[in-house]
């Protein structure tokens, strides 16, 4: 079983999603790539910050086991990314910059509102601060 507080600590830069039912072209990054998605069939999407923002930028306020008090995160729901790429399946493998890996049951996307945060309290997340992308399980919902 994946414990949400363990997953929240990961700075994700790569998500391996099960094979896409209907792969989509999300365009070409013009800025630094902050997230790469690869599906089981070998499809790959490289996304820069602007591409992720264009998918439907949102903010959430939540607490985490790793920080004090409620924080404001901005980014997109993991389910939005899966929908944008057309990926489907039962398990997502997240790989961090330091090669730490964890598996996220695909059902958690909707069940726990898993969120890909790029901003913390209005500022882009730096690598030293769990960025550039932090997988968040909103602990207070």
Q: How would you name the oligomeric state of the polypeptide chains in this document?
A: single chain
Please count the beta strands (DSSP E, at least 2 residues each).
10
Portion in strands: 35-45%
Q: Kindly name the structural category.
A: alpha+beta
How much helical structure, as a percent, in the residues? 10-25%
- The string of secondary-structure elements, in order, is HEEEHEEHEEHEEE
- The helix count comes to 4
Largest sheet: 5 strands, mixed
Strand order in space, largest sheet: 3-2-1-6-7
What shape does the CA trace take? Answer: globular
Span from first to last CA?
A: 19 Å
**What is the overall pLDDT average?**
81
Low-confidence stretches: 1-14
Radius of gyration: 14 Å
Give a verbal description of the structure.
This protein is of the alpha+beta class. The protein has four helices and ten strands; from the N terminus they run αβββαββαββαβββ. The strands form two sheets. A five-stranded mixed sheet has the order 3-2-1-6-7. Strands 4, 5, 8, 9 and 10 form a five-stranded antiparallel sheet that branches. Strand 8 and strand 9 form a beta hairpin. The longest helix is centred in the middle third of the chain and has 8 residues, at 78-85. The two termini are 19 Å apart.
From the structure above, extract its key features.
single chain, alpha+beta, 5-stranded mixed sheet, 4 helices, 10 strands, 16% helix, globular
């Amino acid at each position: 079983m994946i414990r949400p507080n363990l997953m929240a600590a990961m700075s994700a830069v790569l998500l391996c999603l099960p094979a896409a039912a209907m792969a989509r072209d999300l365009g070409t990054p013009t800025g630094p790539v902050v997230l790469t998605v690869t599906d089981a069939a070998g499809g790959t999407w490289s996304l820069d910050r602007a591409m992720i923002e264009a998918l439907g930028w949102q903010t959430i306020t939540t607490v985490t086991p790793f920080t004090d008090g409620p924080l404001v995160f901005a980014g997109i729901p993991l389910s939005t990314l899966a929908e944008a790429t057309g990926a489907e399946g039962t398990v997502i493998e997240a790989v961090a910059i330091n090669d730490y890996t964890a598996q996220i049951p695909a059902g958690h996307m909707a069940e726990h509102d898993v969120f890909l945060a790029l901003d913390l309290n209005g500022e882009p997340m730096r690598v030293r601060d769990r960025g550039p992308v932090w997988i968040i399980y909103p602990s207070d919902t």
